[in-house]
């Protein structure tokens, strides 16, 4: 009898794995195609806006027309954000919430609205990256595939995860960075199911991306190719520590500034319910336009800016654009201040645009400025490029609290493992500074505020479910922590024969167990359906 149950369990595991690979692969194809189209248009938008702003700098008579267009664009953005709240900001917090079952996509609305709104931000010349929107578009595609194939709630969440990973991987052309999102940001744990769905989606998504580029006669490339790295001598690690310390402190300042601006704009929205949203987004858009007139370095995500700071980035095409004939240090300082301020304002106002690459660009500017001081103190010049990467990763990690993503991203985007140990040290220091400052990961905090603003927690009410674990079901033989339960669900008691067990995360579930599950949800029918699927029961 036991052998028969084992065979049945193995068969169930294989079927579940094959299903996840299949749906992950289909998700990757759709998400990869959609995000590739989006990134191509975003790249064209950056080039277009650079040309427009160059023209207006040379022909200031058109300045009033520019700001009229920006005001109209801000109006359209505010209308879209009001109609589709899921596109507010970068989209990363909402997508993370969808992977956990906290919020639910209307995939066609979210994908189309984020596609249009974030492209509008880029075409207007704002400090806007494409990586966050790519992640949400990919996640919405995953949700759409799940709806079309009528998958269960649990599989739908895996597909949203796979689509989001694909979106980030395609935007960066970095598969491991995309997969790291699933474990570190979306689910905050590693399980075989998350891994299977993430890797199958990312692989097929990048293959689709590569095939589209090949058909266009292009080669995918998004790495920082202007940087040259050398193995760092132990005597230089003091500069690594100091750089990470500065970046950690500035990262905490960035975090506080984002939520300071957010509180300011929320007061504006409360004071003027009808026009407040337009005023908030309009303020950010007009300020962004003014900053972009000052320097081209503020525009777009900042990939070109990061490229220009490398040793090989001094070409006519990639050199750091000067500001009002300032020396390089002055140009970097002004660029850093403007990029820092406008990225905080955009995130605080909820402008639909990415902040992922802008944060990296800010970190790179900090590193380039610190290099001037470290070189004067005797640091070998050959470590300058490495220090820029360390500052990028440390600044990012102090804000987002995703150290693994920061480390993997630097290695993938530079195609080098030479920075690995210094970057690990820098990321650790940056994370520590953020931790002792008692800041949460910025996307976690934004998700929490999104739930509050949209009344998600207020609508949820307490439900108690009693379900039995069937032999060879998904939960059979798994630890409680390794099962993807419905959002807000807690297993409070396990009845195993005559024994009552108060479970913790390590408690293993077995066929025949009767579970008492307390769930705080605004959709008890979906929660019940999900529990039945997990435990192998018919509704």
What do these coordinates show?
- With 539 residues, the chain is mostly helical.
- The protein has three domains: 214 residues, Clc chloride channel; 218 residues, Orthogonal Bundle (Clc chloride channel), CATH 1.10.3080.10; 76 residues, Alpha-Beta Plaits, CATH 3.30.70.
- The chain is built from 19 helices and four strands.
- A four-stranded antiparallel β-sheet has the order 1-4-2-3.
- The protein is globular.
Q: Care to give the gist of this entry?
A:
By secondary structure, this protein is mainly α.
N- to C-terminal distance: 27 Å
Overall CATH architecture of the largest domain: Orthogonal Bundle
From the spread of the alpha carbons, the general shape counts as globular
Number of domains: 3
Question: How is the secondary structure organized here?
Answer:
Blueprint: H1 2-58, H2 63-83, H3 92-99, H4 107-123, H5 131-148, H6 153-172, H7 175-186, H8 192-215, H9 237-271, H10 276-294, H11 303-308, H12 328-349, H13 356-376, H14 384-400, H15 403-414, H16 420-436, H17 442-453, H18 456-459, E1 461-468, E2 489-496, E3 499-501, E4 514-521, H19 524-535
Antiparallel strand pairs: 1-4, 2-3, 2-4
Helix pairs in contact: 1-4, 1-5, 1-6, 1-8, 2-4, 2-10, 3-5, 3-6, 3-17, 4-5, 5-6, 6-7, 6-8, 7-8, 7-15, 9-10, 9-12, 9-14, 9-16, 10-12, 12-13, 13-14, 14-15, 14-16, 15-16
What descriptive keywords fit this protein?
66% helix, mainly alpha, four-stranded antiparallel beta sheet, Clc chloride channel, 3 domains, Alpha-Beta Plaits, 5% strand, 539 residues
